[in-house]
């Protein structure tokens, strides 16, 4: 057995059963070893797409995934996706072959690349340590929620490895309990609050955290919101505000601004989630609960920082809080949420016309047409608020939001990874035309994998965010606008069923596809109204 085979076998034994990548000479053997050990290999058309597929799979499945790339250029091709995963604390192991000769065309400082984007560099250094070092890499990924770059030097990979022995992942660390003094202060603030709001983030995306926060909110009368990345966590709760921040409805934003206590649970309370602080009312106390010390207070000033595991802290607070109180859960608030808690309930002027459809009209109609059991992935751009907020999802696993790096072009690969993690749900990729064309090669991956995916392209023939950012200044916009592109034809070229939508009547093609065998994926080339910024972008840019 070679070292490369020992590494691949060890990864699968430790629970890494999906590996995404583009195979070259340097990662050929380790990838085949994982497949031989029972892992599923998903071939992407570009390493950047493979990285995001792996990231999205791990987030949605709640299990570690692997990315496999060639030495040097294979890794550099993947770095945007790796950066997104690292910033999002995704448990991902990047298997990168490594050129050891400085004269090799593929030679590059791969450790430096990892550190530059926040990933953890590691390396297999010798045959007798290959299994141990691979196990350590997986343990770091899983138990510390980190993206780990495991370098596989070419000269070490081909060496004979010792006879394999069964391996086991070390036991996870005991969840961190909050210090007694911090817990006492948190409980005092919860008892004193009359209008508390909880904002759950990435660190609260678990069944235990959902149950613990729901019970604590009920006890102290708190309203429930999430950051964008945790959308869907409280989908079935009547007291949920949906997403806090730029995506918030006017009703949700007003209720958050009216809070006298805001608690971020596994949530950084950053500029997007708090609208640059404008959602924090005068005199409101701000608390952050997180198990990562460097996350506490990083984004804003806090009245209390609580270091601890989110569900553990919530359970501990509930145990001593006392009798339930009404808090913010009044009949008036419930009525406001029932009539204006969703964007589709907010009255707007339908601006469809001139051969272009209002994106709100489009997305509301799609929300009605598509089955409720769905997993939605959203790319970045001016359009992104519409699918994020007008398409409902059944729970937190129904929404995959790879936006920690704010890169466009990740949405399609995100949808592939999420679709493989939840094959029981209809995958929906919501893209702008810029991101769709940037990632078009992965349309072939969707078709080859046989995914019954709906790809919706909000096509304004521009990089819309830049258009609306600079339009008021009278700047020339030639660099960010493009001639009309028939993206439906591009989709057909890759084997998709495709429809062009300029008005509500054109959505009949979507219904026809949904009612049929769904033998091919569907691409919707939606020519959207493009003469004004989306509401969240206007708010963010101050328009």
TrEMBL record:
Domain Thiamine pyrophosphate enzyme TPP-binding intervals: 381-509
Family per UniProt?
Belongs to the TPP enzyme family.
User: What does this protein need as cofactor?
Assistant: thiamine diphosphate
Gene Ontology biological process terms, A to Z: isoleucine biosynthetic process; L-valine biosynthetic process
**Start and end residues of each Thiamine pyrophosphate enzyme central domain:** 183-314
Picking any one GO molecular function of the record gives: flavin adenine dinucleotide binding
Q: Name one GO cellular component term.
A: acetolactate synthase complex
- The residues covered by the Thiamine pyrophosphate enzyme N-terminal TPP-binding domain are 1-105
Q: Which Gene3D superfamilies match?
A: 3.40.50.970, TPP-binding domain
Q: What name goes with this protein?
A: Thiamine pyrophosphate-binding protein
Q: Which UniProt keywords apply?
A: Thiamine pyrophosphate
Q: From which domain of life does this come? A: Bacteria
Q: Which InterPro entries match?
A: DHS-like_NAD/FAD-binding_dom, THDP-binding, Thiamin_PyroP_enz_cen_dom, Thiamin_PyroP_enz_TPP-bd_dom, TPP_enz, TPP_enzyme_TPP-bd
